[in-house]
């Protein structure tokens, strides 16, 4: 008989290997054996990736974060879902928070993949100013930035 912790460990290895479909199945089996709320963020990531249920994935990660706010894995999983949703700014904030909770190579790699933010087009305006946003998007689309 396979225990739930072993299934969870295998699921984490599958996620690291970008095999989220098999990770999803392993997590569902592990959670049927033992409903550990700490594992819900990994389940949320797999559901968001494989089934496209981004809201459900965010909710699962959020619940795990509420229960274990010191676990950087929950921040990482939620950041990945935010990136899938197109929310880069929120993902960066979550990754920075994850780094403050505990550094991991995966967090550093994801931060490096996202890359540093470019300075605003108009430095005298705030980054959130609509003019900065729209001109920045336009310049990005025509590949001048």
Task: List its salient traits.
single chain, 145 residues, mainly alpha, Serine Threonine Protein Phosphatase 5, Tetratricopeptide repeat, 8 helices, 71% helix
Shape: elongated
Strand content: under 5%
Mean pLDDT: 92
Secondary-structure element pattern, one letter each: HHHHHHHH
- Rg, rounded, reads 18 Å
Instruction: Report helical residue fraction.
Output: over 70%
Describe the protein in words:
- It is built from eight helices and no strands.
- The protein starts with a helix and ends with a helix.
- The chain has helices spanning 4-16, 20-33, 40-51, 54-67, 72-85, 88-101, 105-114, 130-141.
- The longest helix has 14 residues, at 20-33.
- The protein has 145 residues and is mainly α.
- The protein has two domains: 4-114, Serine Threonine Protein Phosphatase 5, Tetratricopeptide repeat (Alpha Horseshoe), CATH 1.25.40; 118-145, no CATH class.
- The model has no long low-confidence stretch (mean pLDDT 92).
- Helices cover 71% and strands 0% of the residues.
- Helix 2 (20-33) packs across helix 3 (40-51) and helix 3 runs parallel beside helix 5.
